[in-house]
Specification:
The complex is a heterodimer of chains A (351) and B (236). Chain A is of the alpha/beta class. Chain A has two domains: 2-247, Rossmann fold (3-Layer(aba) Sandwich), CATH 3.40.50; 251-340, CBS-domain, CATH 3.10.580.10. Chain A has 13 helices and 17 strands. Chain A is globular and about 75 Å long. Chain A starts with a strand and ends in an 11-residue tail after the last helix. Chain B is mainly α. Chain B has a single domain (33-230), classed as Orthogonal Bundle (MetI-like fold). Classes of the chains: A alpha/beta (351), B mainly alpha (236). The interface between A and B is medium-sized, with 32 and 24 residues.
Chain lengths: 351, 236
C-alpha cells in the first residue's frame, strides 16, 4: 500500500506543483491518476520512487517513509514504466528486461531465465529476446518496458502514461494485456494518464485531479461516470459519459433469440461462413451488408448496443466463445438489458 | 626549378636505400611519428574524457568548455612549441604540450556533446529503475556517447598526425624530419616524400575511424546513428 500524507511539492521559484495530497493507494489494485496536463499527476507518481522529493509531507510505502531507503535501492524494488519505454538502445531485449536483476546482483543465467519468462508473460515471441529495441514496434517496446518493470517481481508498479505514444488499436491491446497481467499478479499499480477513457477502463479506483494535485473526485469507474462530484468533473468526463458507462457493464443480460427464430429478420437474411461465423446480412436485392456481432460472455453492453445500431437489419449477432453465431438480438432487447441492469454495475475486469 | 617533376622526386625519395633501413628509414620515422601521436592522444584522452564525462553529465561548465575550446583552436601550434621549448627545454614535453593542446579540445567537446546528447527520457528511465549516477553514466550515457566520442577521436587523431611534424623543429624524430631537413638542404624529394607520407598516414587514420564508426559499434547504436543521420539529426 502507498499512502500520501500531506505530500506537497513546491518548486524553488515558488510555483506549486502539488499543494498537499492525502491519498491511499490500496495494495493489489489499480489506482489511476487522471487529469489535464499540468495537474501534478506525474509529480505525484514520481514522489513514490523519489524521482521527485516532496518539499513537505510524506510518502509511505507499506508504512515506511520512502526517504528512509537510499533512492537507488528503493527504486529497484518498484517497477517503473514511462511513456517512451526508455529502453537501453545498445542492449538486447533480454538484457534490457534483466536490468534490475543484474543491478540486484543476480547471476547472469538466472537473470536471463527470469527475463525470458517475462518476455512470454507480456506476450512477446521468444525470438524477440535477441533483438535490439530499435527493431521493435512502439507497442512491442512498451511490452518490453512492462517486462523490465516486472523483472524483479516488485510489489508496486508505477506507470506514467505508458500507452500514450502508441496508436489506439495497439493501446487497446496493451490495456487488455495489463488487465490480464494484473489478474495474475495483483500488483499495487499507480497509473497516470490524461485519457479518461483509459482511466475508466483500467482503474479499480480513479482519482480525478485538478490543478496543484487537488483531488476533484475519488471513486470507482462506475460511480465516477454515473455520479460525477461536480460540474468540472462531469465536463472532464465528456458528454457521452452515460454511453461510456455502458462499457463497464456486461452484455450477458441481453436476451438473445436463437438462430432458428427468424421472426425478426424481416426481409433480411443472415449468411454464415462454413465454420458458423456470421458473414453478412443479405438484402432481397442480393446486396450484402456487414453483420456486426458481440460476445455476450465477455463483451460489454456498449459493444452490444454498437453492434445493434450499426447493423442495417437492426439486429446484433451474438456469437459464442468459438466465434460461431448463436443468435440475434434487436435494439429493443439491448435497451431492455440496459434498463434491467441499471443498478448492477459489472466490472469488465471480472474483479 | 622543375615543377612537373613530382613523380621523379617521389621515386627518388622512395628508392633511396636510406629509406629502407637505419634511423632515416620510412619504418623508423613512421614508428617515431606514431609513437609521438599515440602519446599525445593518450594524455589528451586521459585529460579530456573524464572531464568531459563529468561536465557532460552534470551539465555544469558546458559553456566554459565551448569558450575554452574556441580559444584553444586559435592557439598557433608552432608558437606553443617555441614557448614549451623555452619553458621545458628541448625534449618530448616541448612537443607533447602543444599536441595535447591541439587534441584535447575536440575530444573534450565530443565527450561533453555525446553525454549531453543522451536521450533525457532514457536517463530518466535509468534513474527511475534504480541505477546510481555512476551506473547511468557508465551503462547508459557512455554507450550513447560512443559514436560522438569516436568521431571526436577521429578529428583529434588526424590533426595530431598532421601537426606532429613540428617535432622535427625541436630536433625530435618523426616524419617531420623528412620535410624539415628537406627544406633546410633544398632536398625537395625528401620534403615531398615526407609530406606525402604524412598525408597517407592521416588518411589512413581517418579511414580507420570511419570504418570503426560504421562497423565497430554495437548494433543498437549503429542503427540509432543511421536513423539520426537519415532524419537529419544533430548527433554527429
Amino acid at each position: 500500500m502507498i499512502r500520501f500524507d500531506g505530500a506537497a511539492k513546491r518548486h524553488p521559484d515558488g510555483t506549486v506543483a502539488v499543494a498537499g495530497l492525502d491519498l491511499e493507494v490500496p495494495a493489489g489494485r489499480i489506482t489511476v491518476l487522471v487529469g489535464p496536463s499540468g495537474c501534478g499527476k506525474t509529480t505525484i507518481l514520481r514522489m513514490v520512487n523519489r524521482m521527485v522529493e516532496p518539499t513537505s509531507g510524506r510518502v509511505l510505502l507499506d508504512d515506511t517513509d520512502v526517504t528512509r531507503l537510499p533512492a537507488a535501492k528503493l527504486r529497484r524494488g518498484i517497477g517503473y514504466v514511462i511513456q517512451q519505454a526508455g529502453l537501453f538502445p545498445h542492449r538486447r531485449v533480454i538484457d534490457n528486461i534483466a536490468t534490475v536483476p543484474y543491478l540486484l546482483g543476480w547471476e547472469r543465467k538466472k537473470a536471463r531465465a527470469r527475463a525470458a519468462e517475462l518476455l512470454e508473460l507480456v506476450g512477446l515471441a521468444p525470438e524477440t529476446a535477441k533483438r535490439y529495441p530499435f527493431q521493435l514496434s512502439g507497442g512491442q517496446q512498451q511490452r518490453v518496458g512492462v517486462a523490465r518493470a516486472l523483472a524483479a517481481d516488485p510489489p508496486v508498479l508505477l506507470m506514467d502514461e505508458p500507452f500514450s505514444a502508441v496508436d489506439p488499436v495497439v493501446r487497446a491491446g496493451l490495456q487488455e494485456e495489463l488487465l490480464r497481467l494484473q489478474g495474475e499478479l495483483n500488483k499495487t499499480v499507480l497509473f497516470v494518464t490524461h485519457d479518461i477513457e483509459e482511466a475508466v477502463r483500467l482503474g479499480d479506483q480513479v482519482v480525478v485531479l485538478r490543478e496543484h494535485g487537488l483531488i476533484a473526485q475519488l471513486a470507482d469507474p462506475h460511480t465516477l461516470l454515473t455520479a460525477p462530484a461536480d460540474e468540472s468533473v462531469a465536463a472532464f468526463l465528456g458528454r457521452d459519459r452515460g454511453l461510456r458507462g455502458l462499457g463497464l457493464r456486461s452484455a450477458a443480460g441481453v436476451a438473445v433469440r436463437p438462430l432458428t427464430d427468424t421472426s425478426q429478420y424481416g426481409s433480411w437474411d443472415l449468411t454464415r461462413e462454413a465454420e458458423g461465423r456470421p458473414a453478412n446480412w443479405l438484402a432481397p436485392d442480393g446486396s450484402t451488408h456487414p453483420a456486426p456481432a458481440f460476445h455476450p460472455g465477455t463483451d460489454t453492453l456498449r459493444t452490444a448496443l454498437d453492434a445493434a445500431v450499426l447493423s442495417v437489419a437492426g439486429l446484433a449477432v451474438a456469437v459464442g466463445p468459438d466465434g460461431r453465431a448463436v443468435g440475434t438480438a434487436d435494439r429493443a432487447a439491448v435497451l431492455a438489458a440496459l434498463a434491467d441492469d441499471r443498478d448492477r454495475p459489472v466490472s469488465t475486469h471480472g474483479r | 626549378m622543375n615543377w612537373t617533376n613530382w613523380t621523379g622526386w617521389i621515386s627518388t625519395f622512395f628508392t633511396d636505400p636510406a629509406r629502407r633501413s637505419g634511423p632515416d628509414s620510412i619504418a623508423n620515422r613512421v614508428g617515431e611519428h606514431l609513437t609521438l601521436c599515440g602519446e599525445a592522444l593518450f594524455w589528451s584522452a586521459l585529460l579530456a574524457i573524464p572531464l568531459g564525462l563529468l561536465i557532460g553529465y552534470t551539465g555544469r561548465g558546458a559553456v566554459a568548455v565551448t569558450a575554452l575550446t574556441g580559444v584553444a583552436r586559435a592557439l598557433p601550434t608552432l608558437g606553443l612549441v617555441t614557448l614549451a621549448v623555452l619553458l621545458a627545454g628541448v625534449g618530448d614535453t616541448a612537443v607533447l604540450v602543444p599536441l595535447i593542446a591541439l587534441a584535447a579540445p575536440p575530444l573534450l567537446v565530443a565527450t561533453v556533446e555525446g553525454i549531453r546528447g543522451t536521450d533525457p527520457d532514457l536517463r530518466d528511465a535509468a534513474r527511475g529503475i534504480g541505477l546510481t549516477h555512476r551506473q547511468v553514466l557508465c551503462q547508459v550515457c557512455l554507450p550513447a556517447a560512443l559514436p560522438t566520442l569516436i568521431a571526436g577521436l577521429r578529428t583529434a587523431t588526424v590533426q595530431v598526425i598532421a601537426t606532429a611534424t613540428v617535432a622535427a623543429y625541436v630536433g625530435l624524430g618523426g616524419l617531420g624530419r623528412y620535410v624539415i631537413d628537406g627544406l633546410a638542404t633544398r632536398n625537395f624529394p625528401s620534403t615531398v616524400g615526407g609530406a606525402l607520407l604524412v598525408v597517407l598516414l592521416a588518411v589512413a587514420a581517418q579511414l580507420f575511424f570511419s570504418l570503426l564508426l560504421r562497423y565497430g559499434l554495437p548494433p543498437g547504436l549503429r542503427a540509432q546513428r543511421a536513423a539520426s543521420r537519415r532524419s537529419g539529426g544533430t548527433r554527429r
